[in-house]
Amino acid sequence: MSGSQKSSPGLRALRPAAFGAEPGGARLARIRRSPHFANGAFVNPEGARVLPAPGARTEMVRSYLRKEDRVRRAPARPVPVHPTTAADLAAPPATGLRLTWAGHSSVLAEIDGHRVLFDPVWGERCSPFSFAGPKRLHPVPLPLAALGPVDVVVISHDHYDHLDLPTVKALAGTDTLFAVPLGVGAHLERWGVAEGRIRELDWQESTQVGGLTLTATPARHFCGRGLRNAQHTLWASWVVAGDEHRIYHSGDTGYFEGFTEIGAEHGPFDATMIQIGAYSAEFWPDIHMTPEEGMRAHLDLQGGRPSGVMLPIHWATFNLALHPWAEPGEGTLAAAREAGAAVALPRPGEPFEPTARTVPSQPWWRAVAVPPAGGWPAADEDVPMTASEGTGRTGEGTGDPEAVSTG
């Protein structure tokens, strides 16, 4: 019996494929043994409200429908996507570590001779439906097949903007492995991924893929794909450690004190990929981070030092919140300047090497966004994006303007 088997074939056939599958059998038994599962659901490391308070939901809907708010939440002109090709990714990174942000939370990490693909979403909508739901604000930077062979796909949790049915089905035809939090393997098996290619982990569990160690670490979020959120799948952040480099991917998370513990046990990191978009202090303050909280998390992970490079993720690709489209980028710039920390600002699809002398540093979104009421900050208010002291790497300057021009 497969670990995901739970109900009769007839009942499973009635559940839309995009909803995935509820874990059952041995998989469900393992979930129930988890120290992070209680009273029929996974629980957060710190308490978190996952949905807007009932009294706030009406105002949230009104805000989504207001025309002036809709304009601010999208770019005014086409997003400049970097024209990356398969040939660009064929040569190994000179430093042994290269990241390519494909938009939202999707990142290809080439680390110490291995290739890790985080939260790949190549579909047109992050929705169970092809005709409705948040649609991409920019095209995918390059076809999925152009990425080349991938050793392991890492999934942070099962929400539609992180676990994409069309993308998983495309990858199911390859020999890549999947590293996922507990319960998520049930979705993958239903979509054609062989059980033997799935590594399913609880928080603080690790698996080896070639010369890499992948560890699922805590996050403060929630799960669910169907009409009924059973909380039977886990959410996680991820640490990937190679022979020479270490990286961290936050997945979706609210700020919590556990970042310091993750950093102390697994850091410091050459690069962190931190969620800084789709936040709402009013409607869901506990499950997504603001740019300021994202920078605080980055510093916590680095032992309080502004070392390593932070790559902001979970923004610019889908309209998932009420804040202006460019606000996460601007907020990250300001937080980096305040902290004296290095952040990379690639256009979607632009490869860069975090431990190189410079990283992409231009606020490219300003050329295509609706300007704020007071205009954009002066150039001298921006922060140079270079490797900081304490990482064993050096760097200076603000990057190559040609590499990040809007074309």
From TrEMBL:
<protein>
    <submittedName>
        <fullName>MBL fold metallo-hydrolase</fullName>
    </submittedName>
</protein>
<feature type="region of interest" description="Disordered">
    <location>
        <begin position="370"/>
        <end position="407"/>
    </location>
</feature>
<dbReference type="InterPro" id="IPR036866">
    <property type="entry name" value="RibonucZ/Hydroxyglut_hydro"/>
</dbReference>
<dbReference type="Pfam" id="PF12706">
    <property type="entry name" value="Lactamase_B_2"/>
</dbReference>
<dbReference type="InterPro" id="IPR001279">
    <property type="entry name" value="Metallo-B-lactamas"/>
</dbReference>
<feature type="domain" description="Metallo-beta-lactamase">
    <location>
        <begin position="114"/>
        <end position="315"/>
    </location>
</feature>
<dbReference type="GO" id="GO:0005737">
    <property type="term" value="C:cytoplasm"/>
</dbReference>
